[in-house]
Amino acid sequence: MFRKVKEIKTLEDNEEFCKSIAQMLKAHLTVIPKLSMGILESRGRMDPADLDKFMNTVLRSRISRRVIAEQHLALTDTYHSPWFSPGAKLSESEFIGEIFIKCVAKDVIERCTRAVETIARATYGHDVELPEINVVGHLEASFPYILSHLEYIIGELLRNSVQAVIERRQRAKPTRASPPPPIEVTICEAQQHVIIRISDQGGGIPRDELPYLWSFSKGPQSEQRLENLGRVPKLAATMQELHVSDELGRADLKTPNYSSSLSSMTGRPPNLRLGMGLPLSRVYAEYWAGSLELHSLEGYGVDAFLQISKLGNKNEQLTTRATMDAV
């Protein structure tokens, strides 16, 4: 497509180019569900490790292209903003396109907490008793990041923990009015990175599910995941698409102005489990030279560790043409 676009010389040329980019982003929202369904349908014909390698490679390539496209749209929006002033000094609280210069971990966690609580009430009922989410540690830790990526990762981890605590408590059928155990979030700031640990007491991950934790093929649960994916024609992999009502909009999650990531286009039921949250979160984390690890204590709970590069000087973990040809 881009080879057919003429050289951009005027603002009008750029406007036409932005329209083409927005249309392309919208059209490609079907990629993740179709890829995932293809992986699940091929699980009996190919080695699971090869399927996951292919999926990771394609997703990383897709992320890099969308980052470039969405950054161009965001920079264009900034240029046309009435508050834009060429040569003005950049405030640490501002965005450069899609990049949030001073992303405060505590603020993101609190926004995602409000969103996850709304999702949990939509899934389990408004009278469900939710676990308290406590945030401790280096509460002023900040770093540059693309906010929608971080919100997706944190949102998925918190959502998994909240669901695990609620469902374990429902299975136990408590006879006394004891509150659900809290979820502890610890922020640790080092010289070059920030680590966020999310600890829950949701009973841990069953041993037979651990081998498929980071897999897109999902092993014995693949049939249910395939059926669920069939109900989701489009997926942008953002927290915003888990839109259950206007309440989630009030959680202050950042939604880009362009339509490619709007929840109205990619909305899906909050209780629909696709089995993609953890592996996709790891792809996001590793793309920005970070990491995501889980440690499960079966019968007790899970500790999730998200490591983020603090300095903003790490290259993206790009997919090369040679890597694409090898899968």
From TrEMBL:
<dbReference type="GO" id="GO:0004740">
    <property type="term" value="F:pyruvate dehydrogenase (acetyl-transferring) kinase activity"/>
</dbReference>
<dbReference type="InterPro" id="IPR036890">
    <property type="entry name" value="HATPase_C_sf"/>
</dbReference>
<dbReference type="InterPro" id="IPR018955">
    <property type="entry name" value="BCDHK/PDK_N"/>
</dbReference>
<keyword id="KW-0808">Transferase</keyword>
<dbReference type="Pfam" id="PF10436">
    <property type="entry name" value="BCDHK_Adom3"/>
</dbReference>
<keyword id="KW-0496">Mitochondrion</keyword>
<dbReference type="Pfam" id="PF02518">
    <property type="entry name" value="HATPase_c"/>
</dbReference>
<dbReference type="GO" id="GO:0010906">
    <property type="term" value="P:regulation of glucose metabolic process"/>
</dbReference>
<keyword id="KW-0670">Pyruvate</keyword>
<keyword id="KW-0418">Kinase</keyword>
<dbReference type="GO" id="GO:0005759">
    <property type="term" value="C:mitochondrial matrix"/>
</dbReference>
<feature type="domain" description="Histidine kinase/HSP90-like ATPase">
    <location>
        <begin position="149"/>
        <end position="302"/>
    </location>
</feature>
<dbReference type="GO" id="GO:0005524">
    <property type="term" value="F:ATP binding"/>
</dbReference>
<dbReference type="InterPro" id="IPR039028">
    <property type="entry name" value="BCKD/PDK"/>
</dbReference>
<protein>
    <recommendedName>
        <fullName>Protein-serine/threonine kinase</fullName>
        <ecNumber>2.7.11.-</ecNumber>
    </recommendedName>
</protein>
<feature type="domain" description="Branched-chain alpha-ketoacid dehydrogenase kinase/Pyruvate dehydrogenase kinase N-terminal">
    <location>
        <begin position="2"/>
        <end position="99"/>
    </location>
</feature>
<comment type="similarity">
    <text>Belongs to the PDK/BCKDK protein kinase family.</text>
</comment>
<dbReference type="InterPro" id="IPR003594">
    <property type="entry name" value="HATPase_dom"/>
</dbReference>
<keyword id="KW-0067">ATP-binding</keyword>
<keyword id="KW-0547">Nucleotide-binding</keyword>
<dbReference type="InterPro" id="IPR036784">
    <property type="entry name" value="AK/P_DHK_N_sf"/>
</dbReference>
